[in-house]
Each structure stands twice: as C-alpha cells, then as structure tokens.
TrEMBL record:
Family of the protein in this entry: Belongs to the binding-protein-dependent transport system permease family.
Keyword Transmembrane helix attached: yes
Record's subcellular location: Cell inner membrane; Cell membrane
Transmembrane annotation, as ranges: 7-29, 83-106, 113-131, 151-171, 192-213, 248-269
Signal peptide: none
Name of the protein in question: sn-glycerol-3-phosphate transport system permease protein UgpE
Subunit structure: The complex is composed of two ATP-binding proteins (UgpC), two transmembrane proteins (UgpA and UgpE) and a solute-binding protein (UgpB).
Keyword Membrane: yes
Lineage: Bacteria, Pseudomonadati, Pseudomonadota, Alphaproteobacteria, Hyphomicrobiales
Organism for this UniProt entry: Aureimonas populi
PANTHER family: ABC TRANSPORTER PERMEASE PROTEIN MG189-RELATED-RELATED (PTHR43744), SN-GLYCEROL-3-PHOSPHATE TRANSPORT SYSTEM PERMEASE PROTEIN UGPE (PTHR43744:SF8)
Length: 282
C-alpha cells in the first residue's frame, strides 16, 4: 500500500525543481549570452532573455573562424574533439574487453601477474607519467597528430577490471556447452560474450566518450597547431587576460556547441547506459 502524503510529495517535487533550476540556469545564461552582441555582454547587467544576434554569432563561429585561435572555425574544433573522443572510447573498450577475455578464459604462465600489472597502472594516471609520455610522443614525431592526441589515453585498467569482473560471473556450464558445440575462442567471443556484454559496453562507451571529450591537460601539451585544437583547449585560448579583448559572444557560442555532442550521446544511449549500470546479473 502506498501512503498518500501530499505535503511530502509536494516538498520532494519542490526540491527537484529547485535542483534542476540550479543546474540548468548557468547553461541557460550561457545560451542567452551567446545570442547577444559583444557590446551588450560588456555592459552589464546581461539581459536574461535571448537577443537578436544569435544567428549572426553562431554563423560567425561555425563558418567564419575565430581570431584568437588562428581563424579556425568551430566545425574544425568539433571534428577534432569528436575524433579524439570516439577513438579513446572505442579503443579503450576494444583493448579492455580483449585483455579481460584473455585473463579470464585462457590459461598461460604469469596470467595473474599480467592482470596485476594492468591493475597497478590505476595508480599511474596521465598526470603522473606525463613527462616521459610527452618525450615518447616527441621522439615518434606524433605532436599535432590524432595519434598523439589519443594513443597515450587509449588503455584503461578500469575498463579491463570491469570486464574481468563481469566475465567471472558467466557460468562455467555455458563455456563447456559452447565447447561441446564446437565453438572456438573467436566464435565464443563473438557469438556469446559480445552479445552478453552489450549493456556494459554501452555504459562504458558513454562514460569514456565524455571522458575523451573533456580532456584538457594532454591535448594542451601535445598540440601546437591551432588546426589540431580540441574545443576545450580552444575555449581556453579564446579567453584573453584583458576582458575587453575577449570575444565573449563567440566564447559563449563555442561553449554551447561544446555541450551538445556529449548531451546527445547521453540522451541517445540513456536506456542502454542505465541498464549497463544497474544490471549485475545476466
């Protein structure tokens, strides 16, 4: 029986609405600023309602280029960031699922030693090994390349650990049944493990795509050419120390456009994302 408590329900809804307003207002304020001219933004208070310069601002950012970042337009920044985020997300998933498959279903010398070596890398984030990694990228001539942007971030001990823990829950009888039916390692992996891992892969893809999209430190170090900037780095470069020298209307436009792809990925995959997070038994 569900107890009818109208005041408690109304209070809960009020808290939820207040939380949504607190989270959404900065985004709305940024959108509103993106539709005003630079002169309006530099003369506070900024109007809360959208202005009339929205189309002109978005057209200039998308097709005209931004002076502070060498005339590169936002389409180029979005393309660079999309490539980086996709390669990191897909690469991490592929490497992790294959690593976990080998560790769980194959018996070879030093199997657990290799697993613990992967696990220990959790304690060595990019920030800790950034100098030797940068030196390797310079020696391999990978500065200002997509390979240099993605390769050092593509391995994931966390994803390997998650896939390993999931594979350990698969009944041994299922493995034996596949073996009796004549399924080899590749067929077992392709026809049984991958379908069972779909929700885990989807949840990890969403998390890793947002991780790749929001990277700042490594792209800042490994790119010198403005044509290879990611959108996060470009927003930082667009802001100058002098407030009046910053084209704030274009900064706001770029910030709004930078939000859209991760939001789109989360919305399109929210069903699989939630299932992948909550499902613990197959």
């Amino acid at each position: 029986m569900i107890e009818n408590r109208p005041y408690a329900t109304a209070f809960a809804h009020l808290c939820l609405i207040l939380g949504v307003v607190i989270v959404a207002f900065p985004i709305y304020y940024t959108f509103s600023a993106s539709t005003h001219s630079l002169r309006t933004i530099l003369n506070p208070p900024l109007p809360l309602l959208p202005g009339r310069e929205g189309w002109a601002n978005y057209y200039q950012a998308l097709f005209g280029g931004v002076g502070q970042i060498g005339g590169v337009n936002v389409w180029r920044l979005l393309w660079n960031t999309t490539v980086v985020a996709l390669v990191i997300a897909v690469g991490k998933i592929v490497i992790s699922i294959i690593s976990a498959y080998a560790i769980v279903f194959f018996r070879f010398p030093f199997r657990m030693a290799f697993f613990w070596m992967i696990f220990i890398t959790l304690m060595l984030p990019v920030e800790v090994r950034i100098l030797p990694t940068y030196k390797v990228m310079v020696d391999l001539n990978l500065i200002d390349t997509y390979t240099g942007l993605t390769l050092p971030l593509i391995a994931s001990a966390t994803a390997t650990l998650l896939f390993r823990q999931f594979f350990l829950t698969i009944p041994h009888e299922l493995v034996e049944a596949a073996r009796i039916d004549g399924a080899g390692p590749i067929r077992f992996f392709k026809d049984i493990l991958l379908p069972l891992s779909k929700t885990n892969i989807a949840a990890l893809f969403v998390i890793l795509f947002v991780y790749g999209w929001t990277q700042y430190l490594w792209p800042l170090l490994v790119t010198n050419d403005n044509q290879m900037n990611t959108i996060i780095i470009a927003i930082r470069k667009m802001m100058s120390f002098a407030d009046a020298a910053t084209q704030w209307h274009l900064v706001m436009v770029t910030a709004i456009l930078a939000i859209l792809p991760p939001v789109l990925v989360v919305l399109l995959m929210q069903r699989w994302f939630v299932r992948g997070l909550v499902e613990t038994e197959k």
